Amino acid sequence: MNQYNFNKRMMDMARVDWHDVHRQVIAKYITCPGDRNGWLAVAASLVACSMDGGDEDECREIFLTLSRQSPGYKNDRDCLMAWRSVGGDNSGKATKATPGTFVNLFKQQGGEFSLLQEPATVPARAEAGTDHQQAAPIVTEPVGRLERQTSPDALHTSPLLHYFRNVMWGSEAYYNIAQVWKDYRVGFDTYGRAEVFRYYDMDGVLRYIKFVPFQSGTHHRDKERKMWSEGRVSCFFGEHLLGGNSDKPVGIVESEKTALVMAAYKPEIVWLATSGCSNLRALGARSAIHGRDVMVYPDLDQLDSWGSIAASAGWRCAAEAVPGYVESLRAIGEKSDIADYMFVRYERRMLSPKVQEARAMAKDIPGLWQLMKEFGCSVVE
User: Fold this and answer.
1) Residue 218: helix, strand or coil by DSSP?
2) Please, what sign has the CA dihedral across residues 157, 163, 169, 174?
3) Which helix (DSSP H) or strand (DSSP E) does residue 294 occupy?
4) Residues 83 and 89: beta-carbon distance below 8 Å
5) Cβ–Cβ under 8 Å, residues 239 and 252
6) Predicted TM-score of the model (pTM)
7) In this structure, how many other beta carbons lie within 10 angstroms of the beta carbon of residue 248?
8) Cβ-proximal residues to 52 (8 Å cutoff; 6+ apart), any chain
9) What is the H or E stretch that residue 265 is in?
10) CA–CA separation, 105 vs 82, rounded Å?
């Protein structure tokens, strides 16, 4: 059986056009549950596609995208090893494995994949004159995933949440963290070991999900591992909070992490994030923030760009409105943002003698920590 016939047989068994699968996976409309054998079958089929005229790099990325949804996912390295074991990245090696092996693996998985239909777009609201002309696709999540990722067990393993609680211990902001995580519906993907940031629009419709791995013990992203996402950015992170807080001013920052730390520190403001410096102009045209008291908090390397956008939109910019804003960021380093400034402050505070002493007492004296939490006590330096 040649490679083309094997590929065709796989298509027939799955009743799926694999090139259509490619398109749907890239658009994040596909789920593919299963065990390790099932995932090896996916790898084999994608290898077959790559050898049948498909782009090998693209097929490999599709395989990783699918693998991250697998219940057995641990890291990209293991997934790439599985990819190579069935011939990926090495066309000569692929001939050493018989197509029958792949077909048997595929049969063990049940011989079919669960494809989600492309979601219908939601008509733009009548008053949203400057919103996107075509509404972004709705992101459809597997049943129960939100609950699993926001469960206490999942959040207990979150490096970012653990860092927040550690550096903010004994401050007023500490007691806001749990509510902030709940309000923004932040989750943790235990399989992909990544924080999960969900973007809901003003109507509460899920438009975008971003998975970001963070380093343990810091607030920095783990750049040795890739981020991934579902859907596309078509609303602010935190936009769904605007409707119930119509009297609050709005603060706009670039990253989700920054929105979270600022929401804990200054809950009297609704904090939104753009998921990238280049998204501000497009998102700023959304009707969700029309007529609101808005201030943007640019990263140090975006002072001019965001300042110009803010001026044209009639918003305030922290670079001009907040005394010492630019100087404080420059003291930290290039490309720093307000989150970096806040975490430098919290880390210094965490190491102060009074906080260290209070923390030791809370640990050693039975019931003291429970009392501190019950009454929201903070350590005054």
Assistant:
1) coil
2) negative
3) strand 294-296
4) yes
5) no
6) 0.67
7) 16
8) 3, 4, 7
9) helix 256-265
10) 13
CA gap 219, 61 in Å, rounded = 27
Q: Which is nearest to 186 in space by CA: 153, 220, 219, 211?
A: 211
Residue 107 CB-half CA count within 13 A? 7
The 10s digit of each residue's pLDDT in 7-19 is 444 444 444 444 4
Residue ranges of domains in the chain: 3-115, 145-363
Are residues 149 and 189 in contact, defined by beta-carbon separation less than 8 angstroms?
yes
Closest CA to 214 of 139, 133, 292, 158: 158
* pLDDT under 70: residue ranges of the chain: 1-137, 381
**8 A C-beta contact, residue 178 and residue 152:** no
Task: Tell me the H-state helices in 86-158.
Answer: 91-94, 99-108, 145-149, 152-155
CA distance 67 to 76: 8
Task: List beta partners, residue 209.
Answer: 198, 230
Total residues found in the chain within this entry: 381
Q: Report the distance separating Cα 54 and Cα 23, nearest Å.
A: 12
pLDDT in tens, 220-233: 999 888 888 888 89
From the list 138, 135, 136, 137, the residue with the least C-alpha distance to 123 is: 135
Q: How far apart are CA 41 and CA 70, in angstroms?
A: 13
DSSP H stretches of helix in 266-313: 280-284, 303-313
CA–CA distance, 358 with 267 (Å, rounded to integer): 25
Residue type, 127: E
pLDDT at 303: 94
